[in-house]
Design a protein that fits this description.
Layout: E1 19-27, E2 30-35, E3 39-43, E4 49-50, E5 60-64, E6 67-72, H1 74-77, E7 90-98, E8 101-109, E9 111-119, E10 138-144, E11 147-152, H2 154-158
Parallel strand pairs: 6-8
Antiparallel strand pairs: 1-2, 1-9, 3-7, 4-5, 5-6, 7-8, 10-11
Length: 159
């Protein structure tokens, strides 16, 4: 596949060539690159409080240092099968702007890898077939080492 400076899906504005500092997070066999300017902290799993009638991908609340925040399960949002927590499971606490307001929430992650840089110079078009996710949920796909990684559009996923 030819590298393209275009956005993740048709009609997206072109991405400026830049390097982004990201936290590599695993969900199943997929690797996501969460921009570090959103990440507040990484914590071990904590007890959750289920919320009746909540959106399926925001099923619970957690207490993080005295603050009650929603817990997002991106596996549900991406249509991936749910799996039980393991010794590698972490919660990545992020702050995302939704409808103009900063919102703190926890993202369940099967594994947290490392902080690194990815380049928009090596972006790939989002495939229309064979994906677990909707194209509007992806800012772009790029290479990290020899793997493809997804840079998600967090405000669209969580909004």
């Amino acid at each position: 596949m030819q590298a393209s400076p275009q956005g993740a899906h048709a009609g997206a504005p072109p991405l400026a060539e830049t390097d982004l500092q990201v936290l590599m997070v695993g969900l199943g066999n997929e690797i996501f690159a969460v921009e570090t300017d959103m990440v507040r902290e990484i914590i071990d799993p904590v007890p959750v409080t289920r919320v009746a009638g909540a959106r399926s991908f925001l099923p619970a609340l957690i207490n993080v240092r005295g603050n009650v925040i929603p817990l997002a399960d991106l596996r549900i949002r991406f249509g991936m099968p749910q799996t039980p927590a393991t010794a590698d499971t972490r919660i990545v606490v992020v702050e995302v702007e939704i409808d103009g307001d900063p919102v703190a929430l926890g993202l369940l992650a099967d594994k947290v890898y490392e902080v690194t840089e990815v380049s928009t110079r090596h972006t790939q078009q989002t495939p229309r077939l064979g994906s677990h996710w909707r194209p509007e949920f992806i800012r772009f796909i790029t290479k990290w080492n020899d793997d493809f990684v997804i840079v998600p559009a967090m405000s669209k996923i969580l909004g």
